[in-house]
Amino acid sequence: xxxxxxxxxxxxxxxxxxxxxxxxxxxxxxxxxxxxxxxxxxxxxxxxxxxxxxxxxxxxxxxxxxxxxxxxxxxxxxxxxxxxxxxxxxxxxxxxxxxxxxxxxxxxxxxxxxxxxxxxxxxxxxxxxxxxxxx
Length: 135
Known about the structure:
Layout: H1 6-54, H2 58-61, H3 64-84, H4 86-134
């Protein structure tokens, strides 16, 4: 009797996971070529940066100028990636948010149904105990 409303929870989890996974399943192959080029470029640039960092004198290695350069480069790469993949990122976020809203609604249905069942069982027990007390 307690598993009557479990369908709402299972369906909610299904709706939360499946659309996002399908979206990413179609999205990742489309982005793979651009992403591979991006990662190869980052690897080449990162290797050059590592070699260049080994040549920096020890007293300048931990200076503010180097930290500023590293932070600027990281920020530039992040802005470039977000700008390049912005429509895809927004689409994925929209699918996930929609799925999450539906999941929350179905979770509420599950909780309300479970509460209704508990109230019904409690009312039945109270009625049974009252009838036994009257006898």
